[in-house]
Each structure stands twice: as structure tokens, then as C-alpha cells.
């Protein structure tokens, strides 16, 4: 089994992907990961979807809507950030935008004058810190010893101890499973009238299915036109989920609905 995830080596996505496959390859963007699986150049893709402090990884939501892809697993991991640099003399902090945002309070309190540089991943920030003494990185503390030694200037710098990120494992659609206690859907109604969203929600409420998340994203077609990412606490093997799905299909008859998959949540510590 070959998995692709966000690189270079040492990202949090890499750590999550290690729970999925021994053979892990890297891409520079979430879209590139999903595309690699959709075009069958990888068996699995591991993408961050949501963080407890900073919320959605919107590029991941958009990639799930763009490509014909299935979701086969969900992995939740704690995220504990460290500040890494060659010395305390730095003027820039480089990291993934999610990581910078998760440490906003720490950075404002301890380093109010540094420049923040969003880069493609936390491990990319670590690479920059290795190359340039004026750059510090935010990433997993293990990155300090992978390659040229970096100093760990501070640990556990995330703004909340409970910081956690939810990753999805994507696979070809024919590998989706109906088993599992959660299901994910993308719904594009392609129309807008009073009560449309209420109808969508009622399809689940009437079957006594709890929604764990609903998120709207611009469809890209026109301003004010949205698609909805819906997660619910029921598997597609259950009659009630199938019935809710059929109702949603009929509400979105002018657009489309995609069942991404059913799965159980796995909590992975590393
Ligand atoms: O840059 C990384 O290390 C990633 O794996 C990406 C990512 C994210 O996009 O949320 C994953 C987990 C953390 O929340 C910070 C960054």
C-alpha cells in the first residue's frame, strides 16, 4: 500500500500517514494528494481536514468536492507545536498557515515584532530554518534532530492544550465502505430558495441522525452559490442513512450529491 501526503518528510500529515501505510510519498499541496489518488498514481491519500483551533482546511474541502474520490478512514491526532531555529536571533517565523494561526497568542506575546511567513507545510518551514539563521519554524519537535541540528526554543506553543487535527484518508471510490459510525457527503443543490437548507437538515433530523458538521463552500460557479459538506453520525449500512441520502438526492436534483464514505474515527497518538 502506497500513501501520499503533504511533504516534505516531518509534517503532521506525514505522521498521520505513517499510521496508514509504510510506504509514504509526498506532494506539495492537498489538491496534489487528492489528484494523485483520483488518477490512481497512489493507493491512499492522507489530508488534513479540520483543526480544533483554526477550523477547516478549505483546500481539502474543495479538493474533496472537485475530484471523484472516496473517504475510507478518519484519523484524529493531537498537535503539539515547537519553535525551532538555529538560535534565538531570528526575525521571521515560517510555517503552515494553520500552524501559525494555532500559535497566534504565543507569537503575539513572545515575539510581537517577528514577520510571519506562511509556507506550504510545517516541514517546509523547518527546511527554511535549517538553511537560514534568520528564520525560525513552527513544527513537531522531532524535526529538530532530522538533519542538521536545530534548537528547540519553546515547546507546546499551541494556544490550547487540546489542539487536535482531523485527517481523512482518501481512496478510489470503489473502495468506499458502508460500514462505520460516521458518513460524509458533499451536496450541491444548484438552486437557492427559502427553506432549502432547512429541508436538507430535516432529511437527517427526521431519521434521528445527528450531524457532526456542516460547512458551506463557494461552488465557484457564481457569487452566492454554495455547496455543503455534511458529516453525520450514522453509517451508510443503516436504512435511516440510505433514506436520508435519497431525500437529499431529491432536494439536490438540479445539482448533485456525493456520498464520500462511511468510517469510524481513530485516535492516533504519536
Ligand atoms: O504542515 C503540516 O505539517 C501539515 O501536515 C498540515 C497541517 C494542516 O494543514 O492543518 C496539519 C496539521 C496541523 O494542523 C498543521 C498543519
TrEMBL record:
InterPro entries listed in its UniProt record: ACT-like_dom_sf, ACT_dom, Preph_deHydtase, Preph_deHydtase_CS
PROSITE patterns referenced in this protein's UniProt entry, alphabetically: ACT (PS51671), PREPHENATE_DEHYDR_2 (PS00858), PREPHENATE_DEHYDR_3 (PS51171)
SUPFAM superfamilies, sorted: ACT-like (SSF55021), Periplasmic binding protein-like II (SSF53850)
Pathway: Amino-acid biosynthesis
Pfam families documented for this protein: ACT (PF01842), PDT (PF00800)
Keywords for the protein's UniProt record, in alphabetical order: Amino-acid biosynthesis, Aromatic amino acid biosynthesis, Lyase, Phenylalanine biosynthesis
Sequence ranges assigned to domain Prephenate dehydratase in this UniProt record: 2-172
Enzyme nomenclature, EC number: 4.2.1.51
TM helices/strands, residue ranges: none
Gene Ontology MF terms: prephenate dehydratase activity
CC annotations in GO: cytoplasm
Domain ACT: 185-262
GO process terms (BP): L-phenylalanine biosynthetic process
Domain of life: Archaea
NCBIfam families: PRK11898.1
Name of the protein described by the UniProt record: Prephenate dehydratase
Organism name: Halalkalicoccus paucihalophilus
